[in-house]
Amino acid sequence: MSHKVILIVLDGLAYNTAEQCMGFLQGLNEQKTSTLYKLQCELPSKSRPLYETILTGVPPVLSGIVHNDVARNSNQQSVFSLARQQGLTTAAAAFHWFSELYNRSPYDTVRDRHTNDPAQLIQHGCFYHGDHYPDNYVYLDAESLRRRHNPDFLLIHPMNIDNAGHHEGVDSSHYRNTVRNSDGELSKYLPTWIEEGYQVLITSDHGMNSDKSHGGTLPEERDIPLFVIGERFTHLTDCEPKQTEICGSVCDLLGLTNHNKPSTEKLLFKQNTNNQYMVALAN
User: Fold this and answer.
1) Which of 11, 39, 64, 76 has the largest CB neighbor count within 10 A?
2) What is the pTM of this model?
3) Contact between 18 and 179 (Cβ < 8 Å)
4) What domains, with CATH codes, occur in the chain?
5) d(CA 64, CA 52)
């Protein structure tokens, strides 16, 4: 059975900051509407490589997208490619690197910023090319795409948290307040999405360090959140999901076949040690 899915990637969001500063999402947790898990991002803890990991399930050292300057189309099977192959509608409000990975590379501002092309993997897109592009605009762009095109899969990717971290570092009021602002923006849209039955995953690509950067192995760089919202999740609390499993989980929710990630009608993530599935879909 297929479900519409919204995947939100909050760029540069460290787990501890998400846990402490996202009051609305934590309120959903207290009401058992959402569940928060801690993930460890793949390496290197950089943006473009981890966009590819999230959408394909392939670690950077295997995908070949190993740094931010690898500007080419993905050569991996992705949520977008499988969705298009199987007749689903896709959309994204996101940084232009997603357009380069899954549509056309190099990105052309005039041609690609507003995309409405059935031939592309991301059929309907509103892409931006400045880290300072306001998060509230990204959410407005996403909601406009959702209402106009009713996509089966919608990617939302705000950049302001990462931008704040690069300016002030992870332990700064600017970084924390930017996280709080994104949480506030989500509170404007999530109630509607929940009411309309969307399955929502909210995560990050990587965290941020006190040096105003990321890319290494520090916990604050690698530890990232995953909030899951929707009736198809059992919201088990003793789960250990992996970043590489997000792609397969989204594919399962969308009802996509022929992907190389764990696929079953009842189960979502699997445990590393004994091959037992840990984050389950409800019957």
Assistant:
1) 11
2) 0.93
3) yes
4) 5-223+245-262 (3.40.720.10)
5) 10
